């Protein structure tokens, strides 16, 4: 495992060494379709409240890996372990997609309540529980609005609130800001940094944007290789040892980004040679 900065983290997020049991574990995971392996040899442990970003070139299998970690597809080899929810009114994991996927016929609070349906909660409890994550994303005053009256950034925050409402142990995020304009994307990145301090969930975050990965993550899982010369695989797992506050302005930020870009570029060059 590499570290692209020797600057210690300055926040109070629990370190991996202080957390005895992982909330998510993948061992020797290989993935593929129709008899073809596209990604192999993935080993990963995610600790409570840790943020792990997954990066790599297009087509390397980032989103496929995310779905396997969530148990939505079965690995061809290896295993994925996700613990159960803490109780019968929580879920082990939830997911935020590239698009918010809101139901236009349901008001904002009803959309957030959707993930709570099927849990051991009364209707009144669901309505109350939905307000908690809405407050976390700064939209508690929008509970009775219709989705079409909200901006794209606000709609995506509703999607995040819906995922948080079930109090997941692991929150999977599949390029959640990729469809947003640059200004909105940057604002939501900043809000996600703040949200992490108030949420108990670990986060696994897929992105094409290396700057975004370095900005947000405790560690970055770099995938590389693949296509014509065989399946892709893990290139490295990078510790981003930079303070989370004003990380983008830190002197080591660009160095971290360039280091990961170099890993991805080297991997692509190796596969094509």
Task: Explain the layout of strands and helices.
Layout: E1 2-3, E2 24-33, E3 36-46, E4 51-55, H1 62-69, E5 77-81, E6 93-96, H2 108-113, H3 123-136, H4 152-165, E7 170-174, H5 182-198, E8 202-206, H6 210-216, E9 219-225, E10 232-239, H7 253-272
Parallel strand pairs: 1-10, 3-10, 4-8, 4-9, 6-7, 7-8
Antiparallel strand pairs: 2-3, 2-5, 9-10
Helix pairs in contact: 3-4, 6-7
Family: Belongs to the ABC transporter superfamily.
GO molecular function: ATP binding; ATP hydrolysis activity
InterPro entries: AAA+_ATPase, ABC_transporter-like_ATP-bd, ABC_transporter-like_CS, ABC_transporter_ATP-bind, P-loop_NTPase
Describe this structure in words.
The protein is α/β, with parallel strands linked by helices and 273 residues long. The protein folds into two domains: 2-83 and 170-272, 3-Layer(aba) Sandwich (Rossmann fold); 102-168, no CATH class. 32% of the residues lie in helices and 23% in strands. The chain is built from seven helices and ten strands. Strands 1, 2, 3, 4, 5, 6, 7, 8, 9 and 10 form a ten-stranded mixed beta sheet that branches. Helix 5 (182-198) links the parallel strand 7 (170-174) and strand 8 (202-206). Helix 3 (123-136) packs across helix 4 and helix 6 crosses helix 7. The longest helix has 20 residues, at 253-272. It is globular.
Average of the residue pLDDT scores: 86
Biggest sheet, open or closed, and with what strands and sense?
10 strands, mixed
Give the name of the CATH architecture of the largest domain: 3-Layer(aba) Sandwich
Our Rg estimate from Cα atoms comes to 19 Å
Total count of helical runs of at least 4 residues:
7
- Got a strand count? 10
């Amino acid at each position: 495992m590499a570290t692209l900065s020797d600057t210690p983290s300055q926040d109070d997020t629990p370190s991996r060494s202080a957390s005895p049991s992982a909330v998510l574990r993948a061992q020797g995971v290989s993935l593929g379709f129709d008899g073809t392996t596209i990604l192999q040899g993935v080993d990963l442990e995610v600790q409570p409240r840790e943020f792990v970003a997954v990066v790599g070139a297009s087509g390397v299998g980032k989103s496929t890996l995310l779905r396997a970690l969530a148990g939505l597809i079965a690995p061809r080899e290896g295993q994925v372990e996700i613990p159960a929810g803490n109780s019968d009114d929580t879920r082990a994991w939830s997911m935020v997609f590239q698009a918010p996927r809101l139901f236009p016929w349901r008001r904002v609070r009803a959309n957030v309540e959707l993930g709570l349906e099927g849990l051991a909660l009364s209707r009144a409890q669901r309505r109350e529980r939905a307000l908690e994550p809405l407050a976390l994303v700064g939209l508690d005053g929008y509970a009775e609005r219709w989705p079409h009256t909200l901006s794209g950034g606000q709609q995506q925050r509703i999607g995040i609130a819906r995922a948080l409402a079930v109090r997941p142990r692991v929150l999977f995020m599949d390029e959640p800001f990729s469809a947003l304009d640059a200004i909105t994307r940057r604002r939501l990145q900043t809000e996600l940094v703040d949200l992490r301090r108030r949420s108990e969930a670990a986060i696994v975050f897929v992105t094409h944007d290396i700057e975004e990965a370095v900005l947000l993550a405790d560690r970055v899982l770099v995938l590389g290789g693949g296509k014509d010369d065989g399946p892709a695989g893990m290139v490295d797992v990078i510790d981003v040892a930079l303070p989370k506050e004003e990380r983008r302005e830190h002197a080591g930020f660009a160095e971290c980004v360039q280091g990961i870009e170099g890993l991805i570029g080297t991997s692509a060059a190796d596969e094509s040679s």
